[in-house]
Amino acid sequence: MIKLGRIIEQLGTESQFYDLGRDFSNFIRTIDGTSEQVKQKFEQDIGSKLNGKRIRARSSRGYKQYVKDFEFDVSKITLDDYYDNYVVVAHDNTTPKPKEYFLKPGYKIQVLGPASGQPSNEKGKNPGQSEHPTSPVINPDKAQSQPMTPAPAGATPVEQPVKEETNDHYDAYPIETIVEDIKPWLPYLLLKPETPLRDFVKELGWKKNNVVLFNVVLPINLLKYEISVPFMNQVFSQLNKNPNKDGIIVVKEMTLNESKDTWNIKIKKVFTNERK
Description:
Elements: H1 4-13, H2 20-50, E1 53-60, E2 67-73, E3 76-81, E4 86-92, E5 99-103, E6 110-114, H3 140-143, E7 171-173, H4 175-182, E8 205-208, E9 211-219, H5 229-240, E10 247-257, E11 262-271
Antiparallel strand pairs: 1-2, 1-5, 1-6, 3-4, 4-5, 7-8, 8-9, 9-11, 10-11
């Protein structure tokens, strides 16, 4: 059986294939360039109001995860594309492992003051819970328009449970597992195969039933070959022939970020042997 490294070398020298990926990337460069400029502008606009501040905001600790009120310091703001959905992500660097908070745009953010340097409470606050559990909760947005009805004498205020958003469709696919998935093929594409593979995985993947989607970001200057969608799918085709494989992988989407000189590759994996 021919080794995968040898196959990749052969693919890198073949010239009988039309590189549609290159021409297509030329087509979308203008769109990507414009979108990137708009994205950076709004990152700066939002960041100018929140960076270096301590805030309390309705947010979650992952894409489509439980939503609660978190109090934390903001080091920077990014607008990230999660499967064609842009989300506002606040980054907190007060802990050795930086945290990300996915902000809910439909709710106002309370700016508490300058950053305190203190980490957030990991569990967050229940959105319906005040700092004094025995006191009734008043929504300030409605306080001016709704009359307050006094509680009967001797009655104890009761807080109503808040229904949190749940992830009904996708489960998170860990970064560590993605690293294991790219280990059999990515080193063969790199100028320095010993480069830590964790550097190329920037975010969690997502799994529904037996199908997984995840992204890898490959800087062009670290690659040994000039890659394209046909090239990558041929590499994966050879890898899929391995009898010990646990799933079939293909390129779902591949775009060139010209401003950063990186390939952003969205990979689809269909499990044929479900991991225990």
